[in-house]
Design goal:
Elements lengths: L2 E4 L12 H10 L7 E8 L2 E14 L4 E4 L9 E2 L13 E4 L15 E4 L18
Length: 132
Amino acid sequence: MTVTQIDPPSQDIMLGWTEDQVRTYVDEKPLATGDHMIVLNEYGGFRSYQLVEVVNPALGRQRRILVSQHQQPGGQTFYRNGKNCFYPKGRTKMIPPTPSLAPFLQQPGDQVELRGIYGIVTAQQPPQRLRE
C-alpha cells in the first residue's frame, strides 16, 4: 500500500460525482468482480481516497456492492449510490475512479491524503497567526 499526500485537486469532496451519477455509473457499466472503485473519507477537515477492488457487485437482495478491505471507517459494503451501508449518513462514500487521482492510485490499497484543506496546518504549511 502506498500513501501519497497531494494538494487538493478540487474543493468538491466527491470530485464532481453526485449520488445519482454514481448510481447511474454502477448500473450502466455494470460493475464486475475485480473492477476498481475509490472509497473516500472526510473527517475533521482531512480527506483521503483509497483505491479498492470490487469483490461482489450485487450482494444480497438489494444488490449492494462489496469491496476489498479499506482503511476508512465503516464497513465494506456500499449502496449503489455510493453511501456506506453501515454509516449511510457518515463521511465514508464510494465513487468511480477519477482522472485527477489516477496517477496516485495505481493498485488496490493505494491511498491519497489531501493536505492543506480548510486551513488545516500541515508540515508543508507553516502556522499563520489568526490575530495580530
